[in-house]
Amino acid sequence: MDDTPNLNLPYIMPAQAQKHVTHNGAIRALDALVQLSVLDRDLTGPPGSPVDGDRYIVAGAATDAWSGKENQIAAWQDNAWTFFSPAEGWLAWIADEDVLLVWDGAGWVPSGASLNPAPLVGVNTSADATNRLAVSSSNTLFTHAGNDHRLKINKAGLANTASFLFQSNYSGRAEIGTTGDDDFHFKVSPDGSAWFEALTIDASNGFVGFGTTSPSTNLHVDGPLRVGSYTVATVPSASTNGTGAQIYVSDETGGAVMAFSDGADWRRVTDRAVIS
């Protein structure tokens, strides 16, 4: 055997003449490969003015002195290019990108452990079988990669739940989402056990229900409805609030009354007379 099995470094043989040549060749190879850091991995041909010791990963479709050396390490040594074929597991730092790559036997790939897929991921906390992704932080940012950004919550089917659950000391206090059907629900709870349906938007027609899960009109309120209460002197602008707006006037002549806006004035609902 004339060379080492991993880096192919030449051995100095018995009675060999000019042993320094072999020794220096091995030292040059070690200098090129140990703590490997290359300047670039995107060049298809050699740079114009390399400096002794410069190293590159040869890109695809290589040309000129690099032709046929794709993915190899090109090292400029003693005014010539020396090439080294990577073995599986070799690491290389890419200086112009600040990334660490590994040769996986077929290509140079990021050396970090892949998260695709990963059974558990915990950021500053421990994930578990229920919360496979867990993040402990005062803020969490999801941002765009140049244009839009959509956060998707997907469920298996209609009867399942896709929601955001807001907790206090890990006890539910509010929930929004499609909980148990495809309608959009807003729920609140004082203790995490008893839940109150505050608002429901029907998926089939867009009807909005307050206090009901089955709204039958565009706006369905199951229970008393309170509107703003004013005196005649403090009523807001009828034109600003627009035609059809309603208020309660507490001191109208003849007694308290509901009033509506005709776009210019507030009128009693009882006889359409302008309030006074």
Keywords summarizing the entry:
276 residues; single chain; four-stranded mixed beta sheet; 7% helix; 19 strands; six-stranded mixed beta sheet; mainly beta
Word description of this protein:
This protein has 3 domains: 35-110, no CATH class; 121-221, no CATH class; 229-268, no CATH class. The protein has a 6-stranded mixed β-sheet, with no helix packed on it. It has a 4-stranded mixed β-sheet with strand order 1-5-6-7, with no helix packed on it. Strands 16-17-18-19 form a 4-stranded mixed β-sheet. The longest helix has 15 residues, at 19-33. The protein is 7% helix and 29% strand. The protein is mainly β and 276 residues long. It is elongated and about 125 Å long. It contains 2 helices and 19 strands. The N and C termini lie far apart (112 Å).
Tally the beta strands.
19
Q: Strand sequence of the main sheet, in spatial order?
A: 10-11-12-13-14-15
Main sheet characteristics:
6 strands, mixed
Q: What is the overall shape?
A: elongated
**Helix-strand pattern, N to C?**
HEEEEEEEEEEEEEEEEHEEE
Content-based structural category: mainly beta
What is the rounded distance between the termini? 112 Å
The radius of gyration is 37 Å
Low-confidence stretches: none
Q: What count of helical segments does DSSP give?
A: 2
Whole-number total of structural domains: 3
Helix content: under 10%
Q: What is the averaged pLDDT score? A: 90
Strand content: 25-35%
Topology, please?
Blueprint: H1 19-33, E1 37-38, E2 55-57, E3 73-77, E4 80-84, E5 91-94, E6 99-103, E7 108-110, E8 121-123, E9 133-135, E10 161-168, E11 171-179, E12 184-188, E13 196-201, E14 208-210, E15 219-221, E16 229-230, H2 238-241, E17 246-249, E18 257-261, E19 266-268
